[in-house]
Amino acid sequence: MRLALFGPPGAGKGTQAKRLATAHDLAHLSTGDLFRAAIRDESDLGVRVASLLSAGELVPDDTTNAVVADRLETLGDQGFVLDGFPRTVAQAEWLMGHLAGAGKSLDAVVSLRVPEEDLVQRLSRRRTDAETGAIYHLDFNPPPSDLPPGRLVHRSDDQPEAIRHRLSVYERDTAPVEATLRAHVRYFEVDGTGALEDVQGRIEDAIAQDHGLAGI
Ligand code: AP5
Ligand code: MG
Question: Where do the domains of the chain lie?
């Protein structure tokens, strides 16, 4: 199964991608996570993209596509769930061409729908475990009480100004990708609100409609 999760910042792409990857033995490919790892490692890539991520600006398409190509190369024929990619029309067109060149295609895109006021609340109270990458929310999905406080990270782009900017970048550059994806891939809209397991169940039900869960 080759799946992409689509939706605005805070929609739950990372949360659900991790759950689906674990449940169905898929690789989780998050461009945001790859960029943050590069920043932590202080690699050339990390140095180039650090200020873009903090400000909530998109990394240039060529750089992003190259990172995805490298990661896909390492996966071989393993199924995957894309999280945060593609998020420009140029990235979507590149991805479809790249997969087609290997005789592959995306099986489905799932768009997570969440009201904008919920997105802001989710992002401003998000915390991440720096060691495991687990995603928490201080109210809706609190971290374990025995987790050392130093492990919990507040992302630099989860400050109010960067959140507002990321949402506007989403509307300007990423929302238009929906039309491109709909034209080429089976595209499902799923309600992204409610309990994490309920959202996961809706995603799996949507894909199972005409693919069959065994194929995930
Ligand atoms: P990226 O890391 O992809 O960030 P994003 O798209 O802004 O999305 P988020 O990670 O903020 O949200 P999410 O949908 O994953 O939500 P999550 O599951 O964490 O990108 C960061 C930056 O990297 C970009 O700004 C850009 O600079 C660069 N970049 C990345 N990809 C790029 C690309 N393709 N091209 C160019 N540049 C790129 O959940 C959010 C919160 O909500 C958490 O606290 C979670 O616990 C909570 N939550 C989740 N589900 C629920 C629920 N059902 N109910 C209540 N709370 C919930
Ligand atoms: Mg994420």
Answer: 2-115+174-208
Tell me the per-residue pLDDT of 56-83, one tens digit each, with 9 for 90 and over: 999 999 999 999 999 999 999 999 999 9
- Has domain 2-115+174-208 been given CATH number 3.40.50.300? yes
Q: What is the signed CA dihedral for 206, 211, 214, 216, rounded to 10 degrees?
A: -70
Q: Which of 135, 170, 180, 191 to mutate to test the pocket of ligand 1 (most atoms within 8 A of CB)?
A: 135
Which atom from ligand 1 is nearest to the alpha carbon of 17?
A: 18
Give, for ligand 1, the residue of 111, 113, 141 to mutate: max count of ligand atoms closer than 8 Å to Cβ. Answer: 141
Cis peptide before 86 (omega within 30 of 0): yes
Element (H, E) at 23: helix 13-24
Q: Provide the whole-model pTM.
A: 0.95
